[in-house]
Amino acid sequence: MLYLVGCFILFIIILIVVTIIVFSKSKPDTCKINPKVKKEKVVSLEMLVKTVKNSKSELSEMEEALSIMVKKFPFPENESEANQYFEFVYFFSKNPLSTAKLIVKMQKALSKRNPQYIKQIEEFQMLGVEARI
Hints:
Blueprint: H1 2-23, H2 45-53, H3 59-72, H4 83-94, H5 100-113, H6 118-132
């Protein structure tokens, strides 16, 4: 009888060892998928003017257009080449979604970035605000 108990204990030990070996095997590494890198949209000055010209643009689009204009499009040195920039100021001020705070923010940001055009920026801003009425 003691012989049977020893065999049973040996069987249990072997079963535990096999279970540990089976479950402790390293699992295969999962494949890590890198998220696709978003390509930065190519934005042109014409696209920004078209955005602010559209009276159906959302306020967030207007703010984004302003931030892009300030960061990426400094006014050119030659005043004759700056017509599209002044169009942006005019249509931004004329757009019904532009609030007074947003217009002032635009005027300050563009004037700070382009100090040689402060007077023209203010003139086109006033023309745009007057055209709203």
